[in-house]
Design goal:
330 residues, alpha+beta, 4-stranded antiparallel β-sheet, two-stranded antiparallel sheet, 56% helix, EF-hand domain pair
Length: 330
Amino acid sequence: MSNPAVLTIFDGDLLRSIDLNLPELQHGVTGAQLLEISESKVSQSLSGLSLPPHLKNAAISQVSDGDEVNFRRTEFNQQQASEKLGVFFSAVADALKDTPIVVSILDGTMLKMFLEDEDDFAMLAENLFTDLDEEDKGKLCKSEIRKALVHMGVEMGVPPLSEFPMLDDIVKKHDADGDEELGQAQFAELLQPVLQDIADVLHEKPITIVQNVEIFTGSRIHKILGDEKKLKCLVEKTILEDSNGKDSQGWVKTLIIKNGKELGLPPLSSDNEQVALLYETIFSQLNNKEKETADASTNLKEEFMDALKDILKKFEELLETTPVYSATNL
């Protein structure tokens, strides 16, 4: 019965192929108007997704050169506006490359799949009824239809009420409120038209739901590797905090585990097999690496820095080939 929602990943690639001309502009626009146009066009290109604050702020900062107040007051002609629009799109695309967004696009397709297959729908309705009938009475109140929709959730194609206010109207339209008790067959009969209406509305106007999932690629690590000052600070901090005579590889493991997020790495967790395997693969390479005799002239910090860069490059290579997913709180 379970058909998990199809996930879509926005990593910026789509935005780089959009036509950024603004033929609809007959006259100049202010920076404030241009920001509204830019945000709207990006949202349309991302299936109606509202830009998260960190993406929006990054794009505004870049397109305004850090002076948003004056930018909003400035007048731009059509060519200038198109160029600024390109900067806005590029900024969002770059940010998405570092931190892709995972979404579910609810367009009614999944609900129609359930509704068009009698066996699938019968099994869905039966499972929902059984799950909600906690006291095994064989009866449920009409109002339990709302709980059934929540139970189905985004994974089965039903958006949350907070994102889909029409859900309340649809439930009321079919008189799916109140204390009247229904048997399993009656429950299924009431559920069917409710789901059909939800599917029809979503078909006309799909809803994009951001998933609590973070994707880790090698992009952020690549940037960190170019930040010599940041790496040096982390090395010095680790040596000061942990001076137990470890070799450079031992210190690197300590630093990686303590500062993984800061380095663009997924949080290490035994609950996430994909992430645990990633760390195990990298650390096993360190363990199997033959210890080289350090040159007497080699500075401890330099040796530590080289070992850190080496392991980060290994993480970058693996994550570029096989990105990993990690649950996050948005």
